Amino acid sequence: MNRVTWTIPAALGFGMLLMTACSQLLPASGNLPSTHPEALPQGRPVCTECHEATLKDSLKPYAVFDHTPSFVKDHRFAAQSEERTCAICHKQSFCTDCHANHNEIKPSLKLGDRPDRDLVHRGDYMTRHKFEGKLDPTGCYRCHGRANNEKCVTCHR
Amino acid sequence: MKRLASMATLLALLLPSMAAGVEIGADGTTIIRIEERSVPGFAKQTVAPATQYLGFDAEDISIKGLSMHFYGWGRLDLADDSAESTTPRSTDGNFTYGYLQYRFDKANARVKAGRFFVYEGIAAEQIDGVYARTDLNKGFTIAAFGGIPVRLDRDGMTKGKYIGGGRLGYRYGGILDLGVSGLHEADSPTLYGKEKRQMLGGDIWFSPHRMVELSGRSSYNGTTEEIAEHSYLLSVRPVSGLTAAVHYTDIRLKDYFAFTNVPSLFNPNNGDKFRSHGATVSYRITKLPFPAEVSLEYRHFKRDSKGNSDRYGGEIRLTPLDKLNTGVSYARIAAANGIMSYNEARAFAMYSYGRFSVNLDAIGNIYDDSVYGKKDSYEITGGCGYAITPSLRVSGEATYADTPWYDKDVRGLLRLNYSYNSKGAAQ
After folding, report:
1. Interface touch A157/B217, C-beta < 8 Å
2. Facing residues of A45 across strands?
3. C-alpha–C-alpha distance, residues B150 and B200, integer Å
4. What is the C-alpha separation between B143 and B132, in angstroms, rounded?
């Protein structure tokens, strides 16, 4: 590990700490809660069943976070700017069930007792992956393009 | 595996000292799978991998707002080596994340240090390093991270030397959220050797009316100096329960795939473009006669090298009884020449009564052309579970499948879930 390797992250770290400390001096908004105060029922949560108007300190309507089928399919758009809102209900391990650099058990098997969850690679995916990979290779790339592809390279060398 | 064991030991030693006044949560899942593998030309294998997932969270350690989070897994093969890889191992493991976090008492400000995942605009990275974000005055937000990227696979040192990036955002009262993000990774492995990986991105959330919402992002590959991606989603909610969404995606594969470590799969040299558009409509009934949700989906895919393909289908989810969730779905993939078209149907049900639960899942495919002499496949999974205590649950599934790969594929899985929270509530 050379000096440059450590100097840059250290400088970044120091800068971020300084930036965060300075932000405390600014009149800014409050905090989102660290956790949801009540246990949520099983299944896709619909925030607007209980909440109205806007999620304070996020400045977005609750309806934005309703877990509709299109929200579940395209949740990356929410994740790219709302990680702290996701963290109210989800631990990081919820994300890493599917999105990790090394997952050994496919999500639909690990969570086999939750057939209601929209999980990838159900059923005879060994056959279907040949077709779906040609149809939309970008969908494969997001999880397997740079990581979590040790099984892929046993055939695709 | 050794690092994972060291972390688990360290946590066990730290637990007593942290226990006073600290909210501690721990969750674990033990999964034992049993399979018999028989492939012509190879020795018959019986595999029984036992995999342990372990998560640990401690809130308000010594200081209010300071927390620690850990997650990882380890596997031990109880019979033959189970790993389907070029380098089978009888043990394996992964230290997924482990970090300290401090949440300030305002401005949604937080600092993290350790191993964690970052999701900020264009960045979706696993790093060993530091991260900080905060809201600023006048609607601005800022997030930054830096550190060492986590190795991408175990066959070589496929990672860059260091990585840094961040996102600058601007929010305007429930109408607009704009972000500019970037990342820089030094000496990132590519097909042609080590290069710097530079990505820039812009993201948007725009809601001019409470019923209308536009989300999306564009990214620029600073290394190839070309636009890599445009992805946008327009959602409309005209009445309660009804959501209609249209999406559009345009990706240049040579710029999107530039940093793959599996070029045989994600060939960045073919100059192909991928475009997709489609729509999803869903309607949710919350009351009479019982909760239900209907969704319809259409997607059109276009690849320069393959042609046009379509995917369309729908799903109905019903909750006829409290604690009974059911669903049926159908999809048709009408693919371009050179890609197989097929039909897919699925049905599932899950029911819980007191401490008991049962679940059933059936999925079938009918292929337009035969694969290894078969035109159809199906898989049926049945399972049950029992909550021994509110924090301890045992469950298992048995699966029977008939596919082009196996005539009779029988698998079993046993799962033990454990969760603990020092405040007394199961997680």
Report:
1. no
2. none
3. 21
4. 6
- What does the alpha-carbon distance between residue B29 and residue B26 come to, in Å, rounded to a whole number? 10
Q: Which residues of B touch A74 (CB under 8 A)?
A: 215, 233, 245, 247
Q: Which residues contact A94 (CB under 8 A, 6 or more apart)?
A: none
**Which is nearest to B166 in space by CA: B129, B138, B192, B195?**
B129
Backbone angles phi, psi at B266, to 5 degrees: -115, 80
The tokens of B81 are what?
């080596």
Interface test with B, best of A104, A120, A140 (most B CBs within 10 A): A104
Whether the CB of A72 is below 8 Å from some CB of chain B: the reply is no
Per-residue pLDDT of chain B (427 residues; tens, 9 = 90+): 555 556 556 665 565 555 566 788 999 999 999 887 666 667 777 888 999 999 999 988 888 889 999 999 999 988 777 766 656 678 888 999 999 999 998 888 999 999 999 999 999 999 999 999 998 888 899 999 999 998 776 555 567 889 999 999 999 988 999 999 999 999 887 777 788 999 999 999 999 998 999 999 999 999 999 999 999 999 999 998 999 999 999 999 999 999 888 888 888 887 889 999 999 999 999 877 889 999 999 999 999 888 999 999 999 999 999 889 999 999 999 998 878 899 999 999 999 999 999 999 999 999 999 998 899 999 999 999 999 999 999 999 999 999 988 877 888 999 999 998 876 443 3
- Note whether B279 and A73 are within 8 A (CB): no
Placement of tokens 């992805």 in the chain: B231
ipTM of predicted complex = 0.87
Residue among B146, B262, B405 whose CB faces A9 most closely:
B146
